[in-house]
Amino acid sequence: AADRKGLMALAHGIKGGARLIDARVVIECCERLEAACTASHAPLLTEYVDALHDSMERLDEVLATYLEQED
């Protein structure tokens, strides 16, 4: 239970940062993960953590490309 609470808090914090730059896919992944944590739906947790990780990697690539263009 403590792990789910920590995971939910982490997802919530990431979601807040994602909202600052309107990273909608990351926000949606965080919301799904938070809901799974709240519902104690363990089978979905790994899937949603992986989806969040993938979305954050894609965001990193987009931001890196943007920053390269700004130079």
Written account of the structure:
Helix 1 runs antiparallel to helix 2 and helix 2 packs antiparallel against helix 3. By secondary structure, this protein is mostly helical. The longest helix is centred in the last third of the chain and has 29 residues. It is elongated, with a radius of gyration of 13 Å. The mean pLDDT is 94. It is built from 3 helices and no strands.
Shape: elongated
The main pleated sheet reads as:
none
Q: What count of helical segments does DSSP give?
A: 3
Distance between the termini: 46 Å
What's the count of strands?
Answer: 0
- Give the helix proportion (percent range): over 70%
Strand content: under 5%
Secondary-structure element series:
HHH
* Mean of pLDDT: 94
Q: Compute the gyration radius: what is it?
A: 13 Å
Segments where pLDDT lies below 50 for 5+ residues? none
Structural class: mainly alpha
Structural descriptors:
71 residues, mainly alpha, 3 helices, 0% strand, elongated
Please describe the topology of this protein.
Elements lengths: L1 H19 L3 H15 L3 H29 L1
Can I get a quick summary?
This protein has three helices and no strands.
